[in-house]
Design a protein that fits this description.
heterodimer; A: 150 residues; mainly alpha; Cytochrome Bc1 Complex, Chain D, domain 2; two-stranded antiparallel ribbon; 2 strands; B: 456 residues; globular; metal ion binding (chain B); Nitric oxide reductase subunit B (chain B)
């Protein structure tokens, strides 16, 4: 490497540059935080049911088979747009009934087909989960996914 | 081994190797469930198996880093570790926490409990008490290594290593932050996930690589350390704003598509530099170190990291491409090769270098060790190709043509069978590596050539 780049200069560039990029990153994060709260997720109230549904989603480790907004495991379908795919995004009651019917019919037991476990949820929990999935679906995700298949 | 306290690294490496075995066997099981989906579906569903696979990976890599730090810092600082007892206490906390996490995942004894229940955010599913244990262990570690370095010689290697380890431990705080808003949850979750593997871990990797190359090639320290600062500078300059490539479709603003695309393109540079660094040092180096396996793993790590993290990362990082490929088997292909090259192979390089010294044996079993390198690397490369093909087809069928997820997956079964085969090669390679480390031969299978004895 060139003589002009001494070890101490390289070190100073490392520290100075890193601090510069951290500052920019923090500023953009603050702006993004506001954008999420005020714009991209503001289309539906973050109700108690939605929060309960998020915890149901978490405590059953759903993300280790499914993806939500494309993140998670790739073993089972995307659920960030599942309510749109089922055509119940604007119908809370139908969304609950559809999801409840699905959850209660698992596992399918079909030979050679991926199995979803049975989760013993109360009605309140299943309602919460449906609301959570509707809430996720209404998020402005910059047009992703490309189509309803998720 | 010059310092008695380096011995603690051996305990860390043994625990890491044990978890490594669990990780590859878990991976093998997950791969088999893709082939035969009814297998264990009621007893051990896929999500539990996957948690074991990913969590075991992360914990053993961290144990490897911690052990590696305890091994190299005394040599860099030219003094004993501040407290050996604290190092063992730290390891004990981590082992108890790991066992606790495994029991929680498999038996799910306290569902929904904030302190004892599984938390279910990807990769940080550990119950809160385990997370707190990790935090305490991290603080003990930071105190211990910082006291060691402050009292001794300060080098660029120990400096970069410490900066990386401090930042990664501090970022762990975000594992406790779980906003109710899913999009906020995702944004802060990436502060742990991305800023670990694509920023702070790169610092640790570069420092360990620099240490290994310094020892194995005998190149002048001044040269090695200048390279090191340039590498880590490019890693953080690209990696921090490169976080943007995870902020395309999760509810974050649209400008991340440009920031993420541009800066994550630059993320290839540190990996290219690390690969160049490794090869240039070997060419320049005059020392003919007897531990050829450690050298092979060092060169292999930097090369596979360049392809896995660099090339395969770039493959799907531009937002126009990622719009279609996001969350498909393309991501799985990249994830597997990147982790193997950058962090698994690097840790194994450190083990291959350090364990013979820690056991005070000559580095025997080089042939088995090198065979395990080619088995694992070959298997991983094949797995990456197979998953890339599967992901390309999936992207087209599902994202372009809009066909249903499950029917597309059924069409990919041939690829999943081949992936299981490649995983089998990796698992055999991993077990072979462990065997070659732990079972010592009395003499070499192939007599070594004329070697100039290395001083350490």
């Amino acid at each position: 490497m060139a003589e002009i780049l001494t070890k101490s200069r390289a070190r100073n560039i490392f520290y100075g540059g890193s601090i510069f990029f951290v500052v920019i990153f923090v500023l953009l994060t603050v702006q993004s935080h506001r954008f999420i709260v005020k714009t991209s997720t503001a289309g539906m109230e973050l109700s108690e049911a939605v929060v309960l549904g998020k915890h149901v989603w978490e405590r059953n480790s759903c993300i280790n088979c499914h993806t939500i907004h494309g993140e998670g495991a790739y073993f089972a379908p995307e659920v960030g747009n599942v309510m749109t795919r089922w055509d119940v995004q604007d119908e809370p009651e139908e969304a609950y009934e559809m999801l409840d019917g699905w959850m209660k019919s698992q596992p399918s037991g079909v030979e050679g087909r991926r199995q979803m476990p049975f989760f013993d949820l109360t009605e309140e929990e299943t309602r919460g989960l449906a609301e959570f999935l509707r809430w996720a679906d209404q998020t402005d995700t910059q047009g992703w996914p490309p189509n309803d298949a998720g | 081994m010059k310092y008695q306290s380096q011995k603690v690294a051996y305990a860390y490496f043994l625990c890491a190797l044990g978890l490594f075995a669990i990780q590859v066997l878990g991976g093998l099981l997950a791969g088999w469930i893709y082939v035969a989906p009814n297998f264990l579906s009621e007893l051990m569903p896929f999500n539990v198996v996957r948690m074991l696979h990913t969590n075991a990976l992360v914990v053993w890599l961290l144990l490897g880093f911690f052990g590696g730090a305890y091994f190299l810092l005394p040599e860099e600082s030219e003094r004993e570790i501040y407290s050996v007892n604290l190092a063992y206490l730290q390891l004990a906390i981590l082992v108890v926490g790991t066992l606790g996490a495994v029991v929680t995942y498999v038996f799910n004894l306290f569902p929904g409990n904030w302190m004892f229940g599984m938390q279910g955010r990807e990769f940080i599913e550990q119950p809160t008490w385990v997370k707190l244990g990790i935090l305490v262990a991290a603080l003990i570690f930071l105190f211990n290594v910082t006291m060691t370095v402050l009292a001794g010689r300060k080098t660029a290697i120990s400096n970069v290593l410490l900066v990386g380890l401090w930042l990664l431990c501090l970022l762990w705080v975000f594992a406790f932050i779980n906003p109710n808003n899913l999009s906020l949850d995702k944004m802060y979750w990436w502060f742990v996930i991305h800023l670990w593997v694509e920023a702070t871990w790169e610092l640790v990797m570069a420092a360990i690589l620099a240490f290994l190359l310094l020892k194995l090639t005998g190149v002048d320290r001044e040269v090695v350390e200048k390279w090191l600062y340039v590498i880590v500078a490019t890693a953080l300059f690209s990696g921090i704003l490169g976080t943007g490539h995870h902020f395309y479709w999760i509810g974050t603003p649209g400008y991340w598509q440009w920031i993420g695309s541009i800066f994550s393109t630059f993320e290839v540079i540190p990996f290219f530099l690390m690969m160049s660094f490794a090869f240039v040092m070997v060419w320049k180096g005059r020392r003919n170190h007897p531990n050829k396996a450690a050298l092979l793993w060092s060169l292999g790590s930097s090369t596979v990291a360049f392809f896995g993290a660099g090339v395969w990362g770039f493959l799907h990082t531009l937002h126009g491409v990622n719009f279609y490929s996001h969350g498909t088997q393309i991501t799985a292909a990249h994830g597997h090769l990147a982790f193997f090259g950058a962090y698994v192979a690097l840790n194994l390089a450190m083990f291959a270098y350090a364990i013979p010294m820690l056991r005070q044996k000559a580095p025997y079993n080089q042939v088995l060790n090198m065979a395990s390198f080619w088995l694992m690397t070959g298997g991983m490369a094949f797995m990456t190709f197979v998953l890339t093909f599967a992901g390309t087809i999936q992207t087209h069928m599902q994202r372009v043509l809009g066909e249903d997820f499950m029917s597309v997956q059924e069409g990919l079964s041939l690829f999943y069978i081949m992936r299981f085969g490649s995983g089998l090669a990796v698992a055999i390679g991993a077990l072979l590596f462990i065997y070659s480390m732990l079972v010592v031969r009395k003499r070499e299978v192939i007599a070594p050539g004329n070697l100039a004895a290395a001083e350490d």
